[in-house]
Amino acid sequence: MPAKPTSEPQEGAASPADEAGRRDAPRYLPEDAPGPAREGTPRHAPEDTPRHAREDTPRHAREDAPGHAREGTPRHAREDTPRHAPKDVPAEAVTPLIRGIAVLRELTEANGTLSLSGLERATGLARSTVDRITATLARMGYVRFDGRDVHLSPRLMELGNAYLSALRLPALLAPQADALADELDESVSLAVADLDGIRFIHQATRRRAMSLSFRIGDLLPAERTAPGPLFATEWTDTDWQRWRQRRAADPRDLSFTAVPPRTYGADERDAETFVRRTQEASVNGWSLDDQLIEPGLVAISVPVRAPGTEGTPGRDGRVAAPGTDPTHGTDATITAPGTDDTITAPGTDDTIAAPGTNSKIACVASVVSHTSRHSAQRLRTALLPRLRSAVRAMERELRATPPPEPGPPPSDLARWTGTSKQQLGREFVESLARGLTVVTAFGEDRPELTLTEVARATGLARATARRALITYEHLGLVAWTGRTFTLTPRILSLGFPPLSRTSLPEIAQPHLADLTSRIHESTSLAVLSESGEEIQYTARVATARVMSVNITVGTRLPAYATALGRVLLADAPGPLPGPANLPALTPHTIKDKQTLEQTLAVVRSQGYALVDEELEEGLRSLAVPIRDRSGRVVAALNTAMHASRRTPRECVTDLLPELTRTATRIQTDLHTASRYTRVPPT
């Protein structure tokens, strides 16, 4: 746990200069304008009060001075650059929430792990502030501690899951993307626009030594991708200006950690190339990436258009490309058949017809390969027709799928925060926990919420919910449409990329360590081999004893004679594998399949397996199942010990409840992590 913070002023406040800066606060949500911002705030939660925001101020800067916008923001926080958020922090923004988001982003950019001192350096926050923020995140299950290191936990993915659920595209289109990847034997991805970048929402990868894929949630610069020019056909003048500003501020793409940085800074020729690619994409309806990200990587993309989105993007039916050098293709006119829609580059005479559609782009589907398998030209000639066919199927799916039936709205999601504040006191930053809980109010049947609906779902006062939404809007995590709020793709920047590649053993390992520390026995996780005849250990935590069970990760043992194997076999379909007469490993081993099947039926009904000296004399083992989101047993958890330490009855009365609780915690993390990602069992 973090070191106990030293005594310091209350958190969350703004200076008098901040109070003077209230003219910069967002002017929306007029229904909450009357009355003080503290309406409904519990008396034990001063962190929601803007008058007390000076505590935790980074030692390197006066963020609360007029004109400064990086309050609690890491000095290297790439997501907090001007392209992602306005410079001026609204006076009603929740300072601890800004700082908590900064911590999560630094952990994300560090691939999920940083020491407490590393977080202090990366964010510029005081150590006591980092301690309190990470303690709060740990209470929420979003991070865990390993010594002085802080690790992102799978439960944090519930924030990204809220966005993906509200978006609905991964759930609707992933089957077609996966089928296309299987058919072409190439990686297929789905991406959405995130301002002047693209962010991945689904990956169907191929298992090869040369693997090509990005992580879900990874952010890439539009100009170095195949989807980028397609999204840019819908950019406005403001979007193009933002893009130019970002390129000028970051010419080597150092803020995009998912791609190799440019060796040299981008120049005007790169801008002209992207303009040309955008113009070509608007005519062709597809776009290529010919080794723009890194040598050898090629991709081709086709837009998936949303149904019922009439109107060509941009002003007056025109999509504005960036202002370019007048010598670039002046007086050139290209017309796409069957349409009069045009795209005009400001400051030039270029006029290029947009594709024959008025529907906006919902996402972009891409096939990704490398030059040893396909050149960019071959992607276009050989794979583009099949990609287009798959995209048409995706668009039919979007048109045919009705909106979800509204279910019962959640309520009081943040009620638990008051109890945590009472239990942990000052180490628990309630305003941070409340703010993060606001994200989970969104979902599949709740893609857009009013302020009143957010307040009702979380159980927070309207003023408290309003301040959290103002903070999220400032950070670019929430968009305000005039009456309702929606989550933006930037929610995926909060831990989703590194966590989207987690495996079941990685999920289970900290839970095994905790279980071992409680019961003082070795614990293990195992899966069934492809043949079904053996189990393979995939995670393990050994206890410190003179006499202990000596098994390492990767060890294989016969499934029929182990508690782990029987839990797995009890759920396996089909007949039992192996010979009719099973080898007797000890005098106690079950040797015939009929008796074994009867034993498995008991295991199936009681939910656990106890094996007493059947694998090895003196060895007693107890195991319980780990189930995926569908209820299928995908792994088993066990503890093993010498028979003299506990009787079979004591194993059931003393150890089984502990194993069951741990299995439930592992399953909870697994279900969260696997909602929109594939979690490998090994």
From TrEMBL:
Ranges where the record places region Disordered: 1-92, 304-345, 397-417
UniProt-listed InterPro entries: GAF-like_dom_sf, HTH_MetabolicPath_Reg, PcaR_PcaU, Tscrpt_reg_IclR_C, Tscrpt_reg_IclR_N, WH-like_DNA-bd_sf, WH_DNA-bd_sf
Biased composition (Basic and acidic residues): 19-30, 40-90
Signal peptide positions (record): none
Pfam families, per the entry: HTH_IclR (PF09339), IclR_C (PF01614)
Domain HTH iclR-type: 94-154, 429-489
Composition-biased stretches (Pro residues): 401-411
Record NCBIfam families: pcaR_pcaU (TIGR02431)
Protein name: IclR family transcriptional regulator C-terminal domain-containing protein
Organism listed in the record: Streptomyces indiaensis
